[in-house]
Write a structure and sequence with these properties.
Distance between the termini of chain A: 23 Å
CATH class of the largest domain in chain B: Alpha Beta
Largest sheet of chain A: 5 strands, mixed
Oligomer: heterodimer
Order of helices and strands of chain B: EHEHEHEHEEEEHHEEHEHEHEHEEEH
Mean pLDDT of chain B: 86
Number of domains of chain B: 2
Order of helices and strands of chain A: HEEEEEHEEEHEHEHEEEHEHEEHHEHEHH
Number of helices of chain A: 12
CATH topology of the largest domain in chain A: Nucleotidyltransferase, domain 5
Helix content of chain A: 40-55%
Strand order of the largest sheet of chain A: 3-2-1-9-10
CATH class of the largest domain in chain A: Alpha Beta
Structural class of chain B: alpha/beta
Structural class of chain A: alpha+beta
Number of strands of chain B: 16
Shape of chain A: flat
Number of domains of chain A: 4
CATH superfamily of the largest domain in chain B: Spore Coat Polysaccharide Biosynthesis Protein SpsA, Chain A
Largest sheet of chain B: 8 strands, mixed
Chain lengths: 348, 344
């Protein structure tokens, strides 16, 4: 009882938050202020002699350490394939972001909306909720990422008409058909930006005997990556280590090669969309034919992905206005509308 | 009819928990029936449930899977085409059957005129209390419900399946009942323990649904003609034979989709109840007029009728029909011929 009273009092001094706990990036929306944190989901930890882990840096600072740390320090990505892979580190990361937003370390008990992939299990949902509670949340609501993305993209989710959203995140791609404030059909595949980076690494290794890091692969993907041939061929110099000689080497690659490298993960996304369309009830499929597919998430920024999907499905495809922030903006919107939050929140 | 002479058709699309509950209730309360489970491209969890039940039921189940999400009506038609029993019952996965639900339907199916059979349907949630309607209760109606609908093989052989080009609801069901009627069969609401149903979410944009509804209505009217509402006042001195003939004509009209409000003086009402004319068809409502102020009761009933059916027709007595606008009088005989004329 006393705990509840304290929660209530501290809650009055805390601002409600929405968190998009993504595999690649974590975004935090502060009620009344908008997106206030946009940082990589990376935590740098140092192992102490006692075997315990001490958090050294979180977010951008920690990402800079990726692949450049000494033996005792490791840069961890606590989210893998869209779900929590390391609960303790996730909790630390959440605590860091919550306190960063509030600019203080004590007496913070906010209400938090957290987005989770649609395919996660009850155990995983429980884990996310408990991590957030341990990190200081007073109340935790979970909403499915495609639902948040659809709200963030401004789709009329409460209407009876069908809306198809494809949210391509770092770890997962969620394809969902939403109607009457519920997900009617969803298909989640563990393919996203990370798998694309991996594909680029493997392709360059195979073709040029050149080993590049994850960050370089991501850079290549962003700079010259494409899903469908465009009018111009882009080129880029890539630096890595020659696997034969073992010395650093620079080589030039073009967008056609990267398109080939990305074909497998991109085809997996196209296949997921195709399956989702096939398994959507005809009455909703008819709406999707009219309104088209909306792309959200960082993956939506892959050049010409919309053209490829248009070609493969024959449907109009549009990219959301701010695909990277769609999920967190959608979660933020429901913070302002408690009735909507209760309708779209999932039980854990 | 033996217990193996019923095929239960269950189209399923996701909703694993509801599907499991529905199947569990069916297995418990429909012993010996064959289940035709039609998976409309469900997710793996639902697919697994269907496999489990199909395996458990062995020869008592057929499981058909489609990789694409077909429409509900189309899937029911597929199930009907695979069924072979004299009685086929289609249900939704949100429907829950209760103990003893099947027997009244089986008994009703034995009647040669039985075509479409509708059990007592009660909402699963809501204010309506669960109650059992007498097992021998039967009332003709003008449409079934996809929550639970029985179709006799004789009807299916003559009329085929549902028209999947229609709206998948009201007009589609009405069309099927009219086709049943044209083939010489009746749509019967049957008493017995209630079958519990849940309102299905209606998907699709409202504009598209409205367009489809209007198209279906137009198809229906083109096929079966216009339906009207009539208000008929019986005279106090109507002879039993004339009364019987009048209700024959009214019933024929009701089976063609016309609606009747019959205003009856007290004395005649007793005769009507004795003859069972008051529960011939859902489209026929018999209202007893007040013994002391019959004229006022007629006026009040006519006002309500006009409000409900602005295009309805007021009939005075069984001799003369009066048009609502009072433009013309139509002899009852003419209307009688119109109601009783055979449908093409």
């Amino acid at each position: 009882m006393m705990l509840k009273i304290f929660d209530y009092i501290f809650g009055m001094f805390s601002n409600d938050l929405a968190i998009d706990l993504g595999t690649a990036n974590t975004l935090v929306y502060l009620k009344g202020k908008g997106v206030v944190v946009r940082e990589p989901s990376v935590v740098a930890v140092q192992k102490t002699y006692g075997g315990q882990q001490k958090v050294l840096a979180v977010g951008m600072e920690a990402k800079k350490m990726l692949g450049r740390t000494p033996g005792s320090i490791t840069a961890i990505r606590p989210m893998k394939d869209g779900v929590i892979a390391d609960f303790d580190i996730t909790e630390e990361m959440l605590r860091y972001f919550i306190h960063k937003v509030h600019n203080r370390k004590t007496l913070v008990r906010p209400r938090i909306v957290i987005c989770v992939p649609s395919g996660i299990t009850q155990v995983e949902k429980r884990a996310v909720k408990e991590s957030a509670e341990s990190a200081g949340a007073r109340e935790v609501y979970l909403i499915e990422e495609p639902m948040a993305a659809a709200i963030g993209a401004g789709l009329p989710i409460t209407e009876a008409s069908g809306n198809m959203i494809v949210d391509i995140g770092g770890g997962t791609t969620e394809v969902a058909v939403i109607s009457l404030a519920g997900i009617v059909y969803t298909k989640s595949v563990r393919v996203g930006g990370d798998k694309m980076d991996e594909a680029v690494v493997q392709y360059i290794k195979r073709k040029y005997n050149l080993l590049i890091g994850e960050r370089m692969a991501e850079h290549i993907k962003i700079e010259i990556g494409e899903a469908y041939p465009g009018d111009t061929v882009l080129t880029m110099e890539v630096k890595g280590r020659d696997l034969v000689s073992g010395i650093p080497k620079t080589t030039e690659i073009d967008s056609n090669e990267i398109r080939e490298a990305l074909s497998e993960p991109v085809n997996a996304i196209v296949e997921a969309v195709r399956i989702c369309l096939e398994r959507t009830p005809p009455e909703l499929a008819a709406d999707i034919v009219d309104k088209g597919i909306v792309l959200a998430g960082g993956g939506a920024l892959l050049r010409h992905l919309d053209l490829l999907l248009r070609e493969e499905t024959g449907l109009p495809v549009v990219i959301a206005e701010d695909p990277l922030s769609c999920v967190v903006l959608g979660s933020g919107k429901v913070l302002d509308e408690l009735n909507l939050l209760r309708r779209v929140a999932i039980s854990s | 009819m033996s217990s193996t002479e019923t095929d239960i058709i269950l189209p399923v699309w996701n909703r694993p928990e509801e599907t499991r509950e529905c199947l569990a209730a069916l297995v418990e309360n429909s012993a010996g029936c064959r289940m035709i489970l039609l998976d409309r491209g469900s997710d793996p969890e639902t697919e697994q449930i269907l496999h489990e039940f199909a395996e458990y039921l062995g020869d008592g189940a057929i499981l058909l899977r489609s990789e694409c999400a077909r429409g509900f009506v189309e899937t029911v038609n597929l199930g009907l085409s695979r069924a072979s029993a004299p009685l086929m019952i289609a249900l939704r996965e949100s429907t829950r059957v209760t103990t003893g639900w099947l027997e009244p339907l089986r008994e009703a199916a034995l009647k040669p005129e039985a075509g479409v059979l509708v059990p007592v349907l009660e909402p699963r949630e809501g204010v309506s209390p669960q109650r059992e309607i007498r097992k021998d209760f039967q009332l003709e109606t003008f449409r079934g419900s996809f929550a639970a609908i029985g179709i006799t093989r004789l009807l299916y052989e003559k009329a085929g399946g549902f028209d999947s080009g229609m709206d998948g609801g009201f007009w589609c069901l009405r069309d099927y009942s009219r086709r049943a009627h044209a083939a010489g069969f009746r749509t019967l609401r049957v008493g017995g323990p209630p079958v519990l149903f849940r309102e299905e979410p209606v998907y699709g944009s409202s504009e598209r649904r409205e367009r489809r509804r209007l198209e279906s209505e137009a198809v229906f009217r083109a096929r079966w003609g216009e339906e009207h509402a009539y208000c008929l006042r019986l005279s106090r001195s109507v002879e039993p034979e004339a009364l019987s003939q009048a209700f024959d004509a009214i019933l024929a009209g009701a089976r063609k989709g016309h609606r009747f409000l019959v205003l009856s003086p007290c004395a005649v009402f007793r005769k009507i109840v004795r003859a069972g004319f008051h529960r011939l068809h859902e489209n026929i409502t018999v209202e007893r007029l007040s013994r002391f102020f019959p004229s006022r009761a007629v006026r009040s009933a006519c006002d309500r009728f006009r409000e409900t059916y602005p295009d309805g027709t007021l009939l005075d007595g069984i001799e003369v029909l009066l048009d609502v606008a009072g433009v013309k009088d139509v002899p009852f005989v003419e209307m009688k011929n119109r109601f009783t004329a055979a449908e093409v």
